[in-house]
Amino acid sequence: MDLGIAGRRAIVCAASKGLGKACALALAQEGVHVTVTARSRDVLEATAEEIRKATGVTVTTAVGDIATEEGRAAALAACPEPDILVNNAGGPPPGDFREWEREHWIRAVEANMLAPIFLIKATVDGMIARKFGRIVNVTSGAVKAPISNLGLSNGARAGLTGFVAGLSRQTVRHNVTINNLLPGPFETDRLRTTMEGAAKANNRSVDDEMAARRATNPSGRFGDPAEFGAMCAFLCSAQAGFMTGQNVLLDGGAYPGTL
Questions:
Q1: How far apart are CA 224 and CA 187, in angstroms?
Q2: Beta bridge partners of 179
């Protein structure tokens, strides 16, 4: 399927590796010129060059923490009029809410709620004026099924989800859609880091912990980031203009509900 977005411009946040990189690559494969952001210059530049060589599109880098005003300004300076915005940021650490102080909550809300909202604010009116816009927020499967030790993520991402639910109904008449993409367990560095903590708590190797986690998923495996990127690209497609305000869950069937 031709997604009808060749030649469009996109900002993809936190895209040096993992799911952000997969989204950037999938868009580039559709002919979208991408601006990728991350905090680490070396890793980001390597990723940008990899995508250039694989696709031939223009790939621009913007180094900075997207959770900060400076990081967002760098992304917008590199791509001031994006047609596509993929909001993404690393999730806050797990733990017991009794251990979290106000600054922990502020950091989580800034990265996983306010940063996406401010980037939407900076770009949505231009999309409306041009009669095309696709905004995808990478959130978490925890939005549908909260994870007990990820309270910071549960709270901040649920706040973003509520905000998007209202705004997305106002923008769709202008062919600007806003949807959320909810990852379950995918083969990423972040997943392995999480598994390292669980392995230590369960007194077994990381490989054994990951095998056990795979076995509990109905699919019997973790997701491939390329699968996530492909879904992101579809949500950004010309064909997805009648889909807005949705929470699309990719978790191999782990969520047990019907809705």
A1: 6
A2: 136
Paired with 84 in beta bridges are: 10, 134
**Residue bearing tokens 């009648």:** 242
Torsion, Cα of 143, 147, 150, 154 (10° steps): 20
Q: What is the mean pLDDT of each run of 10 residues along the chain (259 residues)?
A: 97 97 98 97 98 98 97 98 97 90 96 98 98 98 89 95 98 98 92 82 89 94 97 98 98 93
The answer to whether 103 touches 204, Cβ cutoff 8 Å, is no
- CA 219 to centroid of chain Cα atoms: 22
239 C-beta neighbours (distance < 10 Å), count: 13
Q: Are 175 and 132 in contact (CB under 8 A)?
A: yes
Q: What is the DSSP letter of 111?
A: I
Are 140 and 96 in contact by the 8 Å Cβ rule? The answer is: no
The answer to whether the predicted template modeling score (pTM) of the entire model surpasses 0.85 is yes
CB atoms within 10 A of CB 9: 19
